[in-house]
Amino acid sequence: MDRSSRGAAGTDAEMLWSKCLDIIRDNVSAQVFKTWFDQMHASAWDGTTLTVEVPSQFFYEWMEEHYSSLLQKTMQKVLGPKAKLQFQVVMGTGDQDTAKKTINLPAFRKQQAQSALPFGEQPTERPSTHFPTFFNPRYTFENFIRGENNQLATAAGMSVADNPGKTRYNPLVIYGPTGLGKTHLVQAIGNRVLQRNRNAKVLYTNSEKFTMEYINAIQTGKVAEFTNFYRGVDVLIVDDIQFLGGKEKTQDMFFHTFNALHQSGKQLILTSDKQPKDLADVDERLISRFQWGLTADISMPDFETRMAILQQKSLEEGMDMPGDVLEYVARHVNSSVRELEGCLISLLAKVTLDNRELSLDLAKEVVRGVTNSPSSRTLTIDDIKQEVSAYYSQDVTLLSAKTRKHEVVLARQMCMYLAKQLTQMSLKSIGMHFGGRDHTTVLHSCQTILNYLDTDKKVRQDVDFLRKALQR
Questions:
Q1: Please, is 283 exposed, middle or buried when counting C-beta atoms within 10 Å of its C-beta (0-12, 13-18, 19+)?
Q2: How confident is the model over 317-322, as a mean pLDDT?
Q3: Model pLDDT, residue 371
Q4: In what order do the strands lie in the sheet with 267-272?
Q5: How far apart are CA 264 and CA 235, in angstroms?
Q6: Distance between CA atoms of 95 and 233, rounded to whole angstroms?
Q7: Which DSSP symbol is given to 136?
Q8: Largest alpha-carbon pair distance within the chain?
Q9: N or C, which end of the chain is more exposed by having fewer CB within 10 Å?
Q10: What does the alpha-carbon distance between residue 7 and residue 283 come to, in Å, rounded to a whole number?
Q11: Helix or strand or coil: residue 269?
Q12: Among 244, 250, 246, which Cα is nearest to 226's?
């Protein structure tokens, strides 16, 4: 497209977007229009897709969450039923010192994800070109923070992504509590497979969607089409397999689908909130197959990994978070990565929409709201050192010293044990708080206290008392 064509496309885009804004203005409050829609600018129209610039990833996600339906109806009214809207996230200022980066993201993702059954969309020609994948383009390995909590799962995921169906990790089952990044990781695998092979048929779904599609296939007499579609994929990613529990017919269908894909050398990737052996109301035949490959867990990230996640996410949102704010949020929001990201979004919203200053006081306010805790107080190593040293009548500074006196060593080992039990800190981080001792020393200390618990009544009483004192 030459310069004059681009200019004409830009002019057409502005004119069409202006018509859309006239409708939107009548359907939202003046404040909402000024805060959100006034910040959006049309940049291109190619006859089918209108591209609109937005200032941040957060802005894009907010529009998708709150105004997707209004935008879709407006687009259809102004541009016709087949018109598409594309958001262009503009990062950087575009001046001489800061490169201007843009990311193109589709609108109406939720509507797309809930559209017709995927097996009904399989085309008769060039199937790989139009194969429905349902991947979020943001979920990549590049922006997935790797830490001690997900090291094995990430390494296995990258190996599978590079050689789907050709490793020993088939199936690859990733398990762990909700909100820790399982979906991000498995979608990163799918996105990398497609980057390396655009013709690969890679499908992401979840057990609930698989169940509903199977039920619909039975009701509409399309079981054969359903079966052929799922057995024709190269990589099948199924989220939340625990929800297959109790659904006997769906389990039977999934069992045969699993067998067909595995025998054909196709890759299966599954996620769950617990290990396969602990899944309730799931057929033993399926559980046995889930255990054929590799089962890897994702646990809550330690403090350092939470810091890295916050830094990465804040950079993506164009927010420069002060060190004290980062540290406070990372220390006090430790139940899930999802909650951590939610806290960051809340901070960004208050700064962007309420013109608040990004400060430690604002962080404390947001954390209180996100964690639903009146104090949002998180136990620290210093809390533990103070409590334990007072209990054993030891100078707190001796806990980090090189002395080998029995009473000091016991107090130090008790601190390390309680720190491992009551905080999210890694062994390495705990050791750094005790004179720079390494993780093997911390591990030995924890094991020593565990041994005492089996044989020493006094130590058991000490642990019980200190636990209660620290958790008050």
A1: middle
A2: 76
A3: 61
A4: 202-206, 235-239, 267-272, 172-175, 294-297
A5: 11
A6: 46
A7: -
A8: 85
A9: C
A10: 61
A11: strand
A12: 250
Query: Mean pLDDT, to the nearest integer, of 62-76?
Result: 82
Structure tokens belonging to residue 164 = 């789907």
Q: Quick one: pLDDT at residue 323? A: 85
Q: Say if residue 114's pLDDT is above 50.
A: no
Burial 175-195, CB ≥16 within 10 A → b, else e: bbeebbbbbbbbbbbbbbbbe
Give bridge partners of residue 84 from the DSSP assignment.
49
Whether pTM exceeds 0.85 = no
E-only strand ranges, 121-229: 172-175, 202-206
Rg (CA), the chain: 27
Higher pLDDT, 100 or 79: 79
User: Residue range 162-188: average pLDDT?
Assistant: 91
Question: Which residues fall within 8 angstroms of residue 146, CB to CB, at 6 or more apart?
Answer: 154
Dihedral of CA atoms 284, 287, 289, 291 in degrees, nearest 10, equals -140
Give the confidence band of 157 by pLDDT, cuts at 50, 70, 90: very high
Sorted by sequence, the CB contacts under 8 Å of residue 404 that are 6+ apart come out as none
Supply 393's token pair: 């009548």
452-471 per-residue burial string, b: 16 or more CB within 10 A, e: under 16: beeeeeebeebbeebeeebe
**What residues contact residue 101 under an 8 Å CB cut-off, 6+ apart?**
90, 91, 92
d(CA 188, CA 157): 8
Dist. CA 376–CA 367, nearest whole Å:
7
Quote the DSSP letter at residue 177: S
User: Which structure tokens are listed for 199?
Assistant: 């013709």
Q: φ, ψ for residue 298 (rounded to 5)? A: -120, 125
DSSP secondary structure, 210-231, as one string:
HHHHHHHHHHHT-HHHHHHHHH
At residue 320, the pLDDT reads 77
Write the pLDDT tens digit of every residue in 379-423: 788 889 988 998 888 888 899 888 889 989 999 999 999 998 888
Burial call 289-318: b when 16+ CB within 10 Å, e when fewer: bbebbbbbbbebbbbbbbbbbbeebbebbb
Note the residue count of the chain: 472
Question: What is the residue whose two structure tokens read 């209180």?
Answer: 368
- Return the exposure string of 61-94: e unless at least 16 CB atoms fall within 10 Å of the residue's CB, then b: bbbbeebbebbbebbeebbeeebebebbbbbeee
Strand partners, 90: 102
Rounded Cα distance, 236 and 202, in Å? 6
Cα separation, 25 vs 37, in Å, equals 9
